[in-house]
Amino acid sequence: LTEIGKRINAAYPGLELRGHDVVEAVKSGTVRYYGQTVDVSEIAQKVLKPFARQVLGEASAVWGSAARLDAILIAGGGAEVIGPALVAEYPHARIVDNPQWANVEGYLKFGRRVFG
Question: What is the largest CA-CA distance in the chain?
């Protein structure tokens, strides 16, 4: 996401997107710039496509077609950005609710169960 933010900010000086704003720009494909809605989807895709291919390559190496898996749950800070590529490749994949906090919430539940 850092690279996407740098490229969008370079293309639209003064915008200064960071963190969550970059994620929203990638998800929507647009940003507001001096009162206008501008399309940034091409900028994002130039970075995302090679990354998505790399992630899919790693997943294929580990899971193959993943046909034996009941489900693939996509979590983590980048889930909303890279998740759609995984969902397109694996029909039983889904992005979990609140993916940026899903791992933390899972460990919290586990800790409560183990330690009371």
Answer: 53
Are the C-beta atoms of residues 29 and 44 closer than 8 Å to each other?
Answer: yes
Pairing of strands 72-74, 36-39: unpaired
Measured in degrees and rounded to the nearest 5, phi and psi for residue 20 equal -60, -35
Supply the pTM of this predicted model: 0.69
Tokens read off for 85: 């590529």
Q: Are 59 and 81 in contact (CB under 8 A)?
A: no
Both tokens of 99, joined, read 């993916």
pLDDT of residue 105: 95
Strand-strand pairing, 93-95 and 72-74: parallel
Per-residue pLDDT reduced to its tens digit, 45-61:
899 888 888 888 888 89
Q: 66 or 31: which carries more pLDDT confidence?
A: 31
